[in-house]
Each structure stands twice: as structure tokens, then as C-alpha cells.
Specification:
By secondary structure, the protein is an alpha/beta fold. Strands 4-1-9-10-11-12-13-14 form an 8-stranded mixed sheet, sandwiched between helices. A 4-stranded mixed sheet has the order 3-2-7-8. Strand 12 and strand 13 form a beta hairpin. Helix 9 packs antiparallel against helix 10. The radius of gyration is 19 Å and the shape is globular.
Length: 315
Amino acid sequence: MKNPVICIGAALVDELYSATRPMLMSTTNDAFVHRSAGGVARNIAHQLALLNVPVQLISVFGNDGEGDWLKTICSYVNIKLDAAITNQALTGKYTGILNYDRSLFTALLTNTSLDAITPQHLQQHESLLSTAFCIVADANIHPDTVAWLAFFCFKKNIPFIIEPVSVPPAQKFAKMELKGIQMLTPNEDELPAMCSGGGTTFEENAIELLNRGVEKVWLHRGKRGSMLFTKENTYSLEAPPVDDADIKDVTGAGDGSLSGWLMGKYLGKDDEDCLKISHTLSAEILQVNGAIATHLDQEKLLSLVTKYYQQRNFL
């Protein structure tokens, strides 16, 4: 295997309940359900594998039928599990409740067992980690594990990216040392949660994180696109237009965006081109059920960048 992207974090069973009409509080709402393999780290690994990027997933699977199902899906798309953990707990589950307009109303996360991914476990697999093209962790893992990875990646000169996932896990970074983390990828709610509370604007909060040791802060703004902050400059990119009638599921767009960035970097693209690839992949994921654009391979994705942004050929 060529140097893999190593994804560390959740592998879950996703159940998304979509309301068939505007949500009513404190009563029964009619809905339909879609079940799929999920988890932020697993989603990123799955999309990268479909895009022909070699990938390893370090996650925790329950010793049950759902854990076996998730591992079978990983094997089917060539996600390697050399350092994954199987324990006796139930496999983790993400239960999302979607509004009538397909936006997220609320979500529940259960039985992730990710504290089993300890620094001691990773130390047993340092030879694998040392081969990484990049290491990506979702913020559900324990802060001690994040700190160990940041030091390891700094020492080995391996890019280390943290995906905050949601506001509660993002809050653990408010007082953490961030040296060794190349990039954080928060949305508008997660960015201030990662900071000390002194900033009043996106720019001020991003500058705080940069001053604390992060090299890049990539702010996701949904329909308004994204902003990439470094100490040298700030770059903004609009999101491709997607008709509301074509949007089927919004929950996986952020994971897909990071997958697009990683594929771009694997191909040697600069930051600007990586953002365009990322936004293109997000736009495509919005138009499918689940968090994975299974209809795309690397060549198809690159051709769509030109369609969405009307610029030079990416192939």
C-alpha cells in the first residue's frame, strides 16, 4: 500500500429519521427512516477509498452483528483495519432527526466506546502511523489521544487534521495545546466553542487558534461556502449552487468536504484547488441519501469541479 491517509475515530450505524411534514413538539411526527454505515472517521475513509486514495481506519467496533456489518462494508471498499479495535460493547449508533426541509433538528450519539483508542493502543501501532500521508481524527476521541497524536505528528512531520464533529466535542479544544495540528475544520457553531471566548468575529477566533499553534483553520459555512485562514492570508470560496428540491440529505456534506480536500492534497493540488474539489464533493453528497457519494470516482469528481466552477480542466 502507498502511504495511506489514516482516519481515527467513529464507525457507527447511522439511522436518519426524516419528518414528512413540519415538526410538531411534544407529540408524534410521521417520518421515514434511512439506515446506513456512518461515523465521521469511517465516512471520510469510505469516500477516500472510493476516490482511489489508500486508507486505514482506526476505530472501535462492537462484537455484534452491526459491528460485523460495518467491518464487511469497510472490507468491500478496501478500507484497511489493521489497528482497529473490537470490544464487547454494542456498536455505536448515530440517530439523526431531520426537519421537513431536511435540516438537522437534533441527533443522538450512543455507545461509541472511542476512549478505547488510547495513546497506549496507538503506541503499539507506531510503525503503521509512521507510514501515513496524513492523519485525520474526529474530535470524539479522548483529549489525551489527541495530544499524543499531535506530538507524534509534529515529531514525524506528518500532517494532522482534526474534524470537530459538533459543538460538545469541539469544546474540549478551548484550553488545549494545539501545536502539531496542521488544520482544524470547524463550522460556524464549532469555531467559537474551540476558543477561549474572547473573540467576537470569525476572524478573531481563527486568529486565536492560529496563535495557539494551528497552521490552518478551515471554516465551513454551509450555503455560504467556506473560509481558509492562515497566518499569511485568508481565502474565501462560495459554495456551488444546489437547488433545494435536489437536496436529499445534509448530514454528510462536511465529512465529504474534508474527503475532497484530502484527495486534492494526495494529488498534489494547492489549497485553492483543494477547496474547489471539496465544495464540489459536498454539493454532490447533498443530492444523495447517506453521507457517501458512491456514484463518484476520482476522475468523475475532478471533471465536476470544472462544471461547478467553470475553470481549467482538473484532470
